[in-house]
Amino acid sequence: MTRMNYTFTSESVSEGHPDKVCDRISDAVLDAFLAEEPEARVAAETFATTNRVVIGGEVGLSDQDKLHDYMGRIDEITRACIKDIGYEQDKFHHETVEVTNLLHEQSAHIAQGVNASGEKDEGAGDQGIMFGFATNETDALMPAPIQFSHAILRRLAEVRKNGTEPALGPDAKSQLSVVYEGGKPVGISSLVLSTQHFDESLTSNDIRAIVEPYIRETLPDGWLTDATVWHVNPTGKFVIGGPDGDAGLTGRKIIVDTYGGAAPHGGGAFSGKDPTKVDRSAAYAARYLAKNVVAAGMAEKCTIQLSYAIGVSKPLSIYAETHGTGEVDPAAIERAIDQVMDLTPRGIRSHLGLNKPIYQRTAAYGHFGREPDADGGFSWERTDLAEALKKAV
Questions:
Q1: Pairing label, strands 184-197, 168-181
Q2: 44 near 30, Cβ under 8 Å?
Q3: Secondary structure of the chain in the HEC alphabet?
Q4: How far is CA 99 from CA 29, 58, 71, 77, in A?
Q5: Residues contacting 142, CB < 8 A, separation 6+
Q6: Dihedral sign, CA of 188, 234, 89, 97?
Q7: CB 334, CB 320: distance < 8 Å
Q8: pLDDT tens digit string along 161-190?
Q9: Gap between the Cα atoms of 146 and 144, Å rounded
Q10: Could you give the percent of the chain with pLDDT greater than 70?
Q11: Residues 256, 366 contacting (CB under 8 angstroms)
Q12: How many CB atoms are located within 10 Å of the residue 75 CB?
């Protein structure tokens, strides 16, 4: 039986977290190549530490001359990301950081398996399993703990970057323990917020005085009570932040990027990967499908799993689970999904319009639960498939 009364915790990290700096750079590289060629192939990984950023992986353009031109832009792209995030520390500064570019051409053997040729359809860029999830406990059809953990950090980033709160630094973490009653979120038992600050004299109480009003305005009314336990900068000072304080690496925050642990994860990271990589595109498709199932009223909660083999175009399996909340048999949902959406890699890219430079914005504050953008960003958050799913069951 599904538990109805419990406490569940999720965390988020800011755009200035070391791993998120790396995700941002990797996705900025991806966007630059997709802006040049929608079918560009990119698998970019970034490592950052004190005064140093290293970028490696594989890239591919049909025009080799343009490929070499774009390889020369990596330094500029990297520094622009670091500047926008806000790092101007002595040991991590956008002007002085050493950038090493180790990107190279995509393996011909991988390309052979992925590319369409003759009678062969384009295949998946790798084997693997991908999960999508949706729940009606928030307007965005996301789990409340991760959705509001993200929202707090996005708000603090806004007031930091617009100059309202200049004492705050780019590196930050949030964590919410949300109380559920009757299966619905009703309050917060504890809140953790750690944020970098530039003034060494500021205490934890000083930082709480700065951030508390923004936290309160972000969370639903009544969720914070006298019983809520606050931990704001619990270690005391947090002046040294970002890659100078802790090394960063692309793809280490996969739970932060998705559902905060409230749903399964297939294990593949997103950032720096072009949409032929089903680690990314099929995870977006699975979220899109799960969200549309819930939006259609078929279930209050839905998990979708897709699986692929490298070089094979169609998914090996489609699995749906409605966690005891369904109005429709999960097997009927699986059949409907197969009817209403082409889940080959090219079909996903076409349906969701993924061959665009829309990925840098996904690198922090979650890939899901965001509003779709007019230019096609976060297209997987649309609910335009709900009616087709209802007709297909």
A1: antiparallel
A2: yes
A3: CCCCCEEEEEEEECCCCHHHHHHHHHHHHHHHHHHHCCCCEEEEEEEEECCEEEEEEEEECCCHHHHHHHHCCHHHHHHHHHHHHCCEECCEECCCCEEEEEEEECCHHHHHHHCCECCECCCECCCEEEEEEEECCCCCCCCHHHHHHHHHHHHHHHHHHCCCCCCEEEEEEEEEEEEEECCEEEEEEEEEEEEEECCCCCCHHHHHHHHHHHHHHHCCCCCCCCCCEEEECCCCCCCCCHHHCCCEECCCCHHHHCCCCCCCCCCCCCCCECCCCHHHHHHHHHHHHHHHHHHCCCECEEEEEEEECECCCCCCEEEEECCCCECCCHHHHHHHHHHHCCCCHHHHHHHHCCCCCCCHHHCCCCCCCCCCCCCCCCHHHCCCCHHHHHHHC
A4: 13, 17, 13, 10
A5: 134, 135, 259, 366, 368, 369
A6: negative
A7: yes
A8: 999 999 999 999 999 999 999 999 999 999
A9: 6
A10: 96
A11: yes
A12: 16
Tokens of 354: 């993924």
How far, CA to CA in Å, does 311 sit from each of 307, 315, 353? 13, 11, 21
**Alpha carbon distances (Å) from 94 to 26, 132, 181, 190, 235:** 16, 36, 47, 36, 28
Among 10-24, 67-81, 124-138, 330-344, which stretch is predicted with the lowest mean pLDDT?
67-81
Active centre residues (catalytic): 17, 19-20, 45, 58, 173, 238, 246-247, 252-253, 273, 277, 279
d(CA 270, CA 257): 8
What is the rounded CA–CA span in Å between residue 226 and residue 181?
18
Tokens coding 64: 């080799």
Total residues belonging to the chain: 393
Residue with tokens 């084997």: 127
pTM of the model: 0.95
